[in-house]
Design a protein that fits this description.
Length: 223
């Protein structure tokens, strides 16, 4: 068990400074019904998400069923955090009336002069871009995300509904301009994202980790 913990801690130390801007994938256009913000408790939904334990099978599925449990466990924790950002960005785009993001491209660091005549959508894309979610990423591939996002939408649909409700509320009260783009992104970065920390804290959650490790010890090691 300690070998797994040490490996994962080293992995997290290298990659845990991921930004929270995220990117949406054009292949992940998941539709959800409009729900009023008063119809469910955001804090309760997030608390349920944060305290949920994943099984060995969950980890393998989240890794795309392409590798075994021990190889998957550390990577999936990082992937799930970033998948939350991807879902958030897809709902930001939907609220603002922007099309889904296209396939990943090579990362290009833009300068502020390019923003002088940028449209609101171009301004959003400037804010959205991150090397970690590009063809130059040293951690993720684009195909890593569909199974993770499908899992989140099926197991925790309230997370996407939270994003949809909060972002649409901002958009309805404001025109689509740079200020609204900033307001939506700041709502996520400052008020929603800090509350969603299930996999950042996963390995400090003794209950979840012990359960996961005990189940792993009891199962045949055929993968």
């Amino acid at each position: 068990m300690w070998k797994i913990i040490i490996i994962c801690l080293c992995f997290f130390a290298i990659h845990s400074n991921a930004d929270t801007t995220g990117e949406s994938l054009n292949s992940l256009n998941v539709s959800t019904s409009e729900t009023s913000s008063s119809s469910f408790d955001m804090d309760q939904a997030i608390a349920q998400f944060n305290t949920s334990c994943l099984s060995r099978r969950d980890f393998i599925e989240l890794g795309g069923n392409i590798t075994g449990f021990l190889h998957t466990i550390c990577f999936v924790a990082l992937l799930m955090n970033k998948a939350v950002d991807v879902i958030a960005n897809s709902e930001m785009r939907a609220a603002l009336g922007f099309p889904p993001a296209g396939p990943w491209k090579h990362y290009r660091k833009r300068n502020l002069e390019e923003l002088e005549f940028a449209t609101p959508e171009e301004y959003f894309e400037f804010k959205e871009e991150t090397k970690k979610l590009s063809l130059d990423s040293e951690l993720y591939y684009e195909h890593n995300f569909p199974p993770a996002i499908k899992f989140l939408d099926q197991r925790f649909p309230a997370i996407r509904r939270i994003f949809k409700n909060r972002f649409n509320n901002i958009h309805r009260a404001n025109p689509i301009d740079r200020e609204t783009v900033d307001a939506i992104r700041n709502e996520y970065a400052d008020h929603i994202r800090p509350k969603i920390q299930p996999f950042n804290d996963f390995f400090w959650n003794i209950r979840c980790f012990n359960k996961l490790y005990e189940n792993y010890q009891d199962e045949p090691k055929d993968i």
